[in-house]
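During the first year of the project, the team set up a workflow for recording each protein of interest as an amino acid sequence followed immediately by a discrete structure-token representation. This format lets reviewers and collaborators read both layers of information side by side without switching files. As required by the reporting guidelines, we include two representative entries from the current panel. The first entry is reproduced here exactly as it appears in our internal archive.
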Amino acid sequence: MKKLSDLENLDNILRSSVVVAGGFLGTDSRNLDEIISNDLAELAKAEKTISTLVERMKEITKKAIPAMGNWTNIDKTHETRVEEAKGIITCPWPDSCRYAKRITFVKNTQTGIIVKWTDLNIHLIEQHNFFEGKGSVYRVEPIEVVKAIF
């Protein structure tokens, strides 16, 4: 995780981003450090780590890609599909990593919970512990995603 001062510098970039409609922080009034700290606490309550979460997200996306655009069963309790648009999206952190504009949807058939994430979400969670702010179109709710995919 970046130092607090680095995170504070990102706050304005994430709120005013032209890369993502509404920015990466959405309507969340908390500062970046609070958002990250609270989300990590939520993930810990769910007894998951960033690495176990990200590993599962990558596994699901990888299984969904061959069925591009169609729902496919990946095990007894999960269906998934991916949608992909032309182009790439760049990480707002200074690493400037670039990702396909791909969205993975997962439905837990036992609970009915449907969650989604982008390839950039996986990177943001894995490298920056950032799930995006509340109100952001692409926010990944830690508890909700854990309930849906494990």
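The second entry, processed by the same pipeline in the following quarter, appears below.
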Amino acid sequence: MSVSRRNFFKYIGVAGLGAMLPGAAKAAEAGEELVTLLDLSKCVACGACVDACRDANQNKYPEPIKPYPVMHPQDRVPVADWSDKRNVDDRLTPYNWLFIQTATGTWQGRDFEINIPRRCLHCQNPPCANLCPWGAASKQVNGIVRINDKICLGGSKCKSVCPWHIPERQTGVGLYLNLLPSLAGNGVMYKCDRCWNRIAEGKIPACIEACPFEVQTIGPRSEIVTAAHDLAVATNGFIYGEHENGGTNTLYVSPIPFDVLNEAIETGPGRPHLGPAPDPFAFEDKLALAVYAAPVAGLAAGLLHVARSMNQDEKEEKHEGK
């Protein structure tokens, strides 16, 4: 099963170089988005995707400045420091954007073991992008949801509104150090950005390229949704991600029901669930909040860009004056 290479690159040419938009609503106007299909029956947990993700994105990982500023009040946004635990690979961290969960158990009288690559699902209507008060999280026209580490203040609103609580914060890095280091945010939030830069160059994400078992397929949404349903019918399988949170751009197909898998995996901080995720914008009041918040977030993002530029200019002037 694969999406044609010609159609994939045709789509990339249309949307892969698209500019960042302040909210998800505008992205929907651009046409189809890129979707990833994961056939969980093929995954053996070899870890090639995890290693490839780290290699491809290590230049994006945070390099914090220590010691960290003392926040006031201290319990408002606690320090999150993963800089000395960069090798952790059994959960999501600012230095590990993809990991593999293994579910084992018995279903319909048969033992099973299912390995599940976990990362950001890149929602079609992402709460993180719609509700970030500073416009740091946004959705590209090709469906990729990214966090701008140049203006993120690390307040973790994106994590609290994410149904799977995916983004992770690293303290001691980011714009807050130049603005109000003891009062604003406490770092930068990090998560999978779906190798946006590789896609912009006409490549596929590193995790997909490195997988020796072709677990993942990527392509335009209409083709991938059809492929997911065909696979589910052919294998008597089950789909996760098509309707959760109003729809995501990551679709899992498993031979075991996802409610069974959800009971079999460890969940908690850095380890997202596989349970139901209702659409938070199905209610008119929350949808209206997102619509009204978008221009405010865009203005805030612009102001933060200006603040960052002023700080950068000031540093350069000091450097030239030496």
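For the second entry, the following points were noted during internal review. Confidence is low (pLDDT under 50) at residues 1-30. The two ends are 61 Å apart (CA to CA). Both points are flagged for discussion at the upcoming steering committee meeting.
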